[in-house]
Amino acid sequence: MKQWLTTIIVIIVVIGVGAFGYQYVSDQQTYISTDNATVQADLSTLDATQSGVLANWKIKEGDILKQGDVVGKITDQTLPSKTNGTVVKTSVYARQNVLQGQTLAQIADLDQSYVLAYIDEDQISSVKLGQDVKVTIESLSDDFYDGKVMEIGLATGAFYNETETSSASSEQEVQRIPVKISVENLPVNRLTLGVHAEVKIER
């Protein structure tokens, strides 16, 4: 009886491992996959146009602005928003002394959010503009969102890293190329920039 149960368990395990292996190989043939990806959006800054005392500062993180909205003034000069978007960072306060050119707030266009994925250099030749992508965002459950490849980087992620130095090691580190992916129907009101995502680019 025990031998019979052991045999059944072994068969079930073998079938399970085989099914997993088949699915893995199938995915590798169908998709270029990575979980080295995050949700991003284009950022703009609201800068002080002159030095002076910041007055009537009216915005906080999470506020939605329209181009031209007056958000405060410095001395006698008003400060209008230069773009539409959501305030994602501000670290100044009313009656604070500010300097010309100082960044007062960062504004993101969340309606045009995208996923930035890093693809291994040995797979990047298979990535083309317009390819369909399936995207999963960790903070938004396990649902798939449809996307498309909209931009492929011209340099690796490490290219502009000033701390990157040549290594005497014979083992060459794999480089990764940034790929920008547009995503349909993202729930902007539940979106947090910088959260992790997983992408599957259809070959």
Automatic annotation (TrEMBL):
GO (cellular component) term, any one: membrane
Segments forming domain YhbJ barrel-sandwich hybrid: 42-109
Per the record, the similarity remark reads: Belongs to the membrane fusion protein (MFP) (TC 8.A.1) family.
The record ties this protein, via Pfam families, to: Beta-barrel_YknX (PF25990), BSH_YhbJ (PF25997)
Q: What is this protein called?
A: HlyD family efflux transporter periplasmic adaptor subunit
Major place of residence: membrane
Q: Report the residue ranges that make up the YknX-like beta-barrel domain in this protein.
A: 116-201
For this UniProt record, the keywords arranged alphabetically read as follows: Membrane, Transmembrane, Transmembrane helix
Q: What is the lineage of its organism?
A: Bacteria, Bacillati, Bacillota, Bacilli, Bacillales
Q: What Gene3D superfamilies would the database entry show?
A: 2.40.30.170, 2.40.50.100
Membrane-protein topology: Single-pass membrane protein
